[in-house]
């Protein structure tokens, strides 16, 4: 550290010698005097103001934390950038009950680019996923898309036989399902909530009980499109969902630090996700009513309503998008039988997107 005395001595030298050197460059005496004075004043001001500015190390710290924050944010924005490789398989199929999709092999990975590589996204294996989710309470609420996401999540952390044995209960029409996976102390709830109002009710219930899941995934839209068919009404429902979610958050931007205080030692914000709507392939939808009401025009109106509701992180809202739209669009018609429910590969990818987002967030929070 350079002490005040040394700085003073240095300043004196500069004030003395710089004008003398300049005198060699044929400056007039007045100009020299002017230079000398202004140098002196500048140095004096600098020396006296230095203590009032944050020290260099403070500055470096705040800068590096800014960089970390920025990295975290930009990686969250990139986490949905998945590319597909869907190609025919050469499997011999001698069984007519196999679906045409069986003939295609679906592989996915994150897009290769410098920015994405820096985020180090990875497909988590069973043990990594178990570590990450160890001891947590996960709630997935929504329609059949949410149910398919649950199957993919369970397939990642459980053996296939156990998933197959669960499948029957999980797919009981229009019902809730819950399971505790003792090995990793994870509790998983699926809540049948086909409408946005169902989600809002759920969030209000969490708030009343003051018990929040660690991870909450929500997603609806298809039922509203089919049974209500009014995009602006969908937008209204999403906005009220958003305000109930925001009031749930212990540290929401709108509430500042004056938010609800539960009195517990650590109030963690739950990690919140929105499960986007899939692309609908109109010609493949399985009823005339669906083909009529769930057309492209309507789909885009609903998508706009979601954007306008500012529910998603990318529009300043609280929920991180799991971009089923881009996953299904890129996987394409070979990845669906009914133009609405897609193959496991799509929801598997969504699970890995979610886990990577959790990894990014938990580096900061946990
Ligand atoms: C069907 O194909 C499998 C292998 O893919 C083979 O093991 C099996 O014997 C075949 N069955 C018949 C009836 O051809
Ligand atoms: C065809 O495959 C399905 C699904 O694997 C199986 O349930 C069914 O028994 C098979 N049928 C025949 C005739 O092998
Ligand atoms: C989960 O965490 C507990 C302690 O909190 C530990 O004993 C257990 O081994 C962990 N399980 C896994 C699968 O990581
Ligand atoms: C979901 O909301 C709809 C419309 O508000 C309601 O009719 C239905 O009973 C709710 N379903 C559940 C499971 O709460
Ligand atoms: C659509 O929903 C909005 C908002 O709820 C409502 O004002 C409007 O009347 C509805 N339009 C139709 C055609 O029902």
TrEMBL record:
Question: Keyword Transmembrane helix on this protein?
Answer: yes
Q: Which domain of life is it from?
A: Eukaryota
Q: Report the subcellular localization.
A: Membrane
Q: Which residues cross the membrane?
A: 6-25, 32-53
Q: Name one GO biological process term.
A: xylan biosynthetic process
UniProt name for this protein: Pmr5/Cas1p GDSL/SGNH-like acyl-esterase family protein
Native organism taxonomy: Eukaryota, Viridiplantae, Streptophyta, Embryophyta, Tracheophyta
Tell me one GO molecular function of this protein: acetyltransferase activity
Write out the GO cellular component annotations: Golgi apparatus; membrane
Question: What are the entry keywords?
Answer: Membrane, Transmembrane, Transmembrane helix
